[in-house]
Amino acid sequence: MREIIAGISHIDSAELQLILQNPDNKTLIIDVREPGEYIAGHIPGIPLIPMNDIPDYVQELDADREYIFVCRSGGRSYEVARFLKHNGFEKVHNFYGGMLSWSYEVTEGPEKIIQQFDPALLERN
User: Fold this and answer.
1) Is residue 71 annotated as a catalytic residue, yes or no?
2) In CATH, what class is 3-122?
3) Matching PROSITE patterns, A to Z (predicted)?
4) Which listed site, 25, 38, 60, 92, has its alpha carbon 20 to 30 Å from 50?
5) What is the reported pTM?
């Protein structure tokens, strides 16, 4: 269920799971943790752009798209959502509770670590 906290929309794990299961939902979901955290366990199919790299890609992200940001506990992803909101992105959400609250499928390894920006890499398969 979505909730607005400090001006940012937060979604819970059940809603995120529904979004992931809906192939018609084109929301971009981005993990913003560090590579080691991502490799240790992440939501399958979700790309990684570490929080500190997001400012480098602001001009290349599509401000008309909807985004959900994921981190370990919800703090870093909240800061990324807040940063993008202040940069003109209206449809940004924080995954409340982060991976600590995720009880669905997790995979290990460097599946989709974004090292050179390509918008196609952000899409779910």
Assistant:
1) yes
2) alpha beta
3) RHODANESE_3
4) 25
5) 0.96
